[in-house]
Amino acid sequence: MKILAAALFLVALPVQAGLAATLTVHVTDIDKKGGILRLSLYDQSGWSKNEDTPIASANVLAELPETVVTLTDIKPGVYGIKLFQDVNSNGKFDQNFIGLPLERYGFSRDARPFLSQPGFSRTKFTVTDGSNEISIHLQ
């Protein structure tokens, strides 16, 4: 019985090891002011929570004409991305006194906000095992 259990365990290892994805995000319409591109990947349950707990995130230098961000070891599933170009590198998404953005931002599937961020259903995309690529245009 122990031999059978050990054999099943060894057979299951490659399946589990293969369940990792890489997501490459191509971001265009970068502001020439530079700064840091701050990207966060969410599942549906974390999308609209006030706490900012993404599945994965990255902060990279914003580069013209395109900034490429690669997230590794992502579990295949359905996700949405929020990102913004932090031109003054203060770690915040700057807005004016009435809440209009002062920095460029974007969402997966190029979803556009209307008075608030778009819902998860408008931004969701599927990450499969292996390599995945998407493009986002900053607004």
Assembly type of the shown chains? single chain
Can you write the helix and strand succession as a string?
HEEHEEEEHEE
Alpha plus pi helix count:
3
Query: Do you know the CATH architecture?
Result: Sandwich
Q: Which secondary-structure class do the elements indicate? A: alpha+beta
- The portion of residues assigned to helices is 10-25%
Mean pLDDT: 88
Radius of gyration: 18 Å
N-end to C-end Cα span: 60 Å
Strand content: 35-45%
User: What is the CATH top level name?
Assistant: Mainly Beta
The name of the CATH topology is Immunoglobulin-like
Count all strands and give the number. 8
Our count of domains comes out at 1
Major sheet summary line: 5 strands, antiparallel
Quick recap:
By secondary structure, this protein is an alpha+beta fold.
Keywords:
Immunoglobulin-like, disordered N terminus, three-stranded mixed beta sheet, 139 residues
List the helices and strands and how they pair.
Elements: H1 2-17, E1 21-28, E2 36-42, H2 44-47, E3 56-61, E4 66-74, E5 77-86, E6 105-107, H3 120-123, E7 125-127, E8 130-137
Walkthrough of the structure:
The chain is an alpha+beta fold and 139 residues long. It has a single domain (20-137), classed as Immunoglobulin-like (Sandwich), CATH 2.60.40. Helices cover 17% and strands 39% of the residues. The chain is built from three helices and eight strands. It has helices at 2-17, 44-47, 120-123; strands at 21-28, 36-42, 56-61, 66-74, 77-86, 105-107, 125-127, 130-137. The strands form two sheets. Strands 2, 3, 5, 6 and 7 form a five-stranded antiparallel beta sheet that branches. A three-stranded mixed beta sheet has the order 4-1-8, with no helix packed on it. It starts with a helix and ends with a strand. Residues 1-16 have low confidence and may be disordered.
